[in-house]
């Protein structure tokens, strides 16, 4: 045998494609050529896999070696093809049986000593391999529990190349068979019962959680904005199976999975610092395209604390993912798409000097306006709920009786409201009020005369804009869902109006 084939997987964003790796050995000057649109990291694989094979106690064929990756049109990047390349060479040289080698998807990077190093993106890669009909895979041991999430595939974790070679030859080896484990829902993080007072903000948080509405909290330092935001994931329902796999796939590509319990079952909470670069928040990078905060927050919460401190271009760049639920990153090699359907939570002080009380504020009116303008316009237009937090009265912090409701109690109501909403929208592609287009909302529910008058008055007095109108309708439905009503009553509309119109920014 002088020609052999193995399988690797190429990833563009989250989209994987099966890649055929062929090795041909021929007479001629010993040397190795790689063809088929490889990037420099793969060219370097040549030397790495040769050293790894030698250090695993096997001979490197003293022949002319041609390695081909196909489809040729797909740009192959990264070191994840190392083991597919190495095994292709060894199969062509007759060191391992070609049939066994050609039956398995091989993903992983090799160290010079032959150890297998974990790589990013194993889960989406295997999901693609499975979709393409492959049933067996070998990955580095450190990626095994992640690989086992691709249920229906037989996956093995290899500590090193020597083990893989031994197993292909039917000899003793220390490969480990992957088993899918049901991961328990991890603890929810800090609890809402820690938050004292702030009843309006607590209610706003609950409504935001129930309807998936974007939320802005404005108030002086120390009011509890950061505290409240951090407690939002604890009241959100757990991810469903499909969301969990998708979120885990994004975090896999970012290289952020926990090795032991890779499956992400809770809504992620991502809070980039305001100094973070646009690439960090939106996604990007030169050699490897990484998902940014917006994608890591997919199916969860993106929290921008001290939101007006973020750079203007970063805030502006959020509009596209907010609109599309995904980011498109243009590269020389094409466009990469990552999902980015997140719930936006903003926190801001009322002014740049961040005085605890208005009387202490040292900012001029122009400064104050410039500060709030940074958030206004297209971004704030997408925020359904704006809530003002007053400074906490000192007495509340010293009182011991004022325990708020716990996250578990609130989460229960949120879950019921979500179920009502899912039922309400059962004949549509949407599940949460915040996602439903205005025209569909209006078809589902027309305010009665009293409600319409309330809304009209808000529009007439300039409290509500045309765009805000649909948002109040959506909010009214969420308020009704939380209250267990099929249709909003007038009080629900009034609460919704108050949430939308809180006077700030
Ligand atoms: N509503 C509150 N209940 C209990 N403690 C609070 C509250 N608000 C603020 N604190 C205390 O003040 C600290 C700062 O709160 P934080 O949420 O960071 O305020 P903000 O983000 O509005 O500036 C918290 O760690 C907590 O100790
Ligand atoms: Mg804060
Ligand atoms: Zn000020």
Mean pLDDT reading:
90
Give the distance, in angstroms, between the N- and C-terminal Cα atoms. Answer: 73 Å
Portion in strands: 15-25%
What best-fitting shape do the alpha-carbon axes yield?
Answer: elongated
Give the secondary structure arrangement, pairings included:
Blueprint: E1 3-12, E2 15-26, E3 31-35, H1 40-55, E4 64-70, H2 82-92, H3 98-101, E5 105-106, E6 109-110, E7 116-117, H4 122-131, E8 136-140, H5 144-147, E9 154-158, H6 161-168, E10 176-177, H7 199-211, E11 215-218, H8 225-230, H9 241-253, E12 269-270, H10 278-282, E13 283-284, E14 290-291, H11 293-296, E15 301-304, H12 312-317, H13 319-324, E16 326-331, E17 334-339, E18 343-348, H14 365-373, H15 378-381, E19 385-388, H16 394-398, H17 407-424, H18 438-444, H19 449-460, H20 466-483, H21 490-501
Parallel strand pairs: 3-4, 5-8, 8-9, 11-18, 11-19, 12-15, 15-18
Antiparallel strand pairs: 1-2, 2-4, 6-7, 9-10, 13-14, 16-17
Helix pairs in contact: 1-2, 7-17, 17-20, 18-20, 19-21, 20-21
Residues 195-198, 219, 221-227, 347, 392 line the site of adenosine-5'-diphosphate.
Brief synopsis:
The protein has helices at 40-55, 82-92, 98-101, 122-131, 144-147, 161-168, 199-211, 225-230, 241-253, 278-282, 293-296, 312-317, 319-324, 365-373, 378-381, 394-398, 407-424, 438-444, 449-460, 466-483, 490-501, and strands spanning 3-12, 15-26, 31-35, 64-70, 105-106, 109-110, 116-117, 136-140, 154-158, 176-177, 215-218, 269-270, 283-284, 290-291, 301-304, 326-331, 334-339, 343-348, 385-388. With 505 residues, the chain is an alpha/beta fold. The longest helix is centred in the C-terminal third of the chain and has 18 residues, at 407-424.
